[in-house]
Write a structure and sequence with these properties.
105 residues; 2 domains; two-stranded antiparallel sheet; NDUFB2_plant/fungi; mainly alpha; 4 helices
Length: 105
Protein backbone atom coordinates (compact mmCIF):
# COMPACT_ATOMS: atom_id res chain seq x y z
CA UNK A 1 0.00 0.00 0.00
CA UNK A 2 2.89 2.33 0.71
CA UNK A 3 4.24 1.94 -2.83
CA UNK A 4 0.94 3.11 -4.34
CA UNK A 5 0.96 6.27 -2.26
CA UNK A 6 4.62 6.85 -3.14
CA UNK A 7 3.84 6.57 -6.86
CA UNK A 8 0.90 8.93 -6.46
CA UNK A 9 3.02 11.44 -4.58
CA UNK A 10 5.72 11.24 -7.25
CA UNK A 11 3.20 11.77 -10.06
CA UNK A 12 1.61 14.74 -8.31
CA UNK A 13 5.03 16.28 -7.62
CA UNK A 14 5.95 15.97 -11.31
CA UNK A 15 2.74 17.74 -12.34
CA UNK A 16 3.19 20.38 -9.63
CA UNK A 17 6.78 21.02 -10.75
CA UNK A 18 5.64 21.38 -14.36
CA UNK A 19 3.00 23.88 -13.28
CA UNK A 20 5.52 25.91 -11.25
CA UNK A 21 8.13 26.00 -14.04
CA UNK A 22 5.73 27.26 -16.67
CA UNK A 23 2.17 28.08 -15.76
CA UNK A 24 0.88 27.87 -19.36
CA UNK A 25 -1.71 25.23 -20.14
CA UNK A 26 0.51 23.74 -22.87
CA UNK A 27 3.19 22.63 -20.42
CA UNK A 28 0.58 21.15 -18.09
CA UNK A 29 -0.98 19.23 -20.98
CA UNK A 30 2.41 17.96 -22.12
CA UNK A 31 3.35 16.94 -18.59
CA UNK A 32 0.19 14.88 -18.23
CA UNK A 33 0.24 13.25 -21.65
CA UNK A 34 3.97 12.41 -21.64
CA UNK A 35 4.61 10.42 -24.86
CA UNK A 36 1.01 9.93 -25.95
CA UNK A 37 0.47 13.24 -27.55
CA UNK A 38 -1.22 14.76 -30.49
CA UNK A 39 -1.26 12.40 -33.48
CA UNK A 40 -4.84 12.98 -34.49
CA UNK A 41 -8.16 12.05 -32.94
CA UNK A 42 -7.62 8.28 -32.93
CA UNK A 43 -10.14 5.55 -32.20
CA UNK A 44 -11.90 5.41 -28.84
CA UNK A 45 -13.39 2.18 -27.55
CA UNK A 46 -14.55 1.58 -23.97
CA UNK A 47 -12.76 4.70 -22.76
CA UNK A 48 -9.38 3.81 -24.34
CA UNK A 49 -8.18 6.05 -27.17
CA UNK A 50 -5.69 4.50 -29.58
CA UNK A 51 -3.84 6.93 -31.83
CA UNK A 52 -1.95 6.30 -35.05
CA UNK A 53 1.78 5.96 -34.27
CA UNK A 54 4.26 8.36 -35.88
CA UNK A 55 5.96 7.34 -39.14
CA UNK A 56 9.33 6.73 -37.46
CA UNK A 57 7.85 4.03 -35.20
CA UNK A 58 6.16 2.36 -38.15
CA UNK A 59 9.41 2.43 -40.11
CA UNK A 60 11.43 1.06 -37.19
CA UNK A 61 8.87 -1.72 -36.70
CA UNK A 62 9.11 -2.66 -40.39
CA UNK A 63 12.91 -2.62 -40.19
CA UNK A 64 12.93 -4.83 -37.09
CA UNK A 65 10.52 -7.31 -38.69
CA UNK A 66 12.49 -7.43 -41.94
CA UNK A 67 15.73 -7.99 -40.00
CA UNK A 68 14.13 -10.83 -38.06
CA UNK A 69 12.91 -12.60 -41.20
CA UNK A 70 16.24 -12.07 -42.94
CA UNK A 71 17.98 -13.72 -40.00
CA UNK A 72 15.53 -16.64 -39.92
CA UNK A 73 15.96 -17.35 -43.65
CA UNK A 74 19.74 -16.86 -43.44
CA UNK A 75 20.02 -19.39 -40.62
CA UNK A 76 17.71 -21.81 -42.41
CA UNK A 77 19.83 -21.52 -45.56
CA UNK A 78 23.00 -22.35 -43.65
CA UNK A 79 21.60 -24.80 -41.04
CA UNK A 80 18.49 -26.11 -42.77
CA UNK A 81 19.66 -29.72 -42.75
CA UNK A 82 20.10 -29.67 -38.98
CA UNK A 83 16.74 -27.94 -38.61
CA UNK A 84 14.87 -30.54 -40.70
CA UNK A 85 16.77 -33.73 -39.80
CA UNK A 86 18.02 -32.80 -36.36
CA UNK A 87 21.62 -32.59 -35.22
CA UNK A 88 23.97 -35.51 -35.71
CA UNK A 89 24.81 -37.62 -32.70
CA UNK A 90 28.10 -36.74 -31.02
CA UNK A 91 29.86 -39.90 -32.26
CA UNK A 92 28.90 -39.14 -35.87
CA UNK A 93 31.12 -36.05 -35.87
CA UNK A 94 34.18 -38.18 -35.18
CA UNK A 95 33.28 -40.62 -37.96
CA UNK A 96 32.77 -37.82 -40.46
CA UNK A 97 36.14 -36.25 -39.55
CA UNK A 98 37.87 -39.62 -39.99
CA UNK A 99 36.30 -40.03 -43.43
CA UNK A 100 37.46 -36.55 -44.42
CA UNK A 101 41.02 -37.39 -43.34
CA UNK A 102 40.95 -40.61 -45.39
CA UNK A 103 39.77 -38.73 -48.47
CA UNK A 104 42.55 -36.14 -48.12
CA UNK A 105 45.28 -38.82 -47.76
Amino acid sequence: MASRSAVGALASSVVRRAMMNNSSSASLTQARRFAAGGHGPGQTYAGLTLREPPFIYKALGQLAGATMWFWVFYRFYHDGDAFINGHDSHWMHDLIEEEKKKLKA
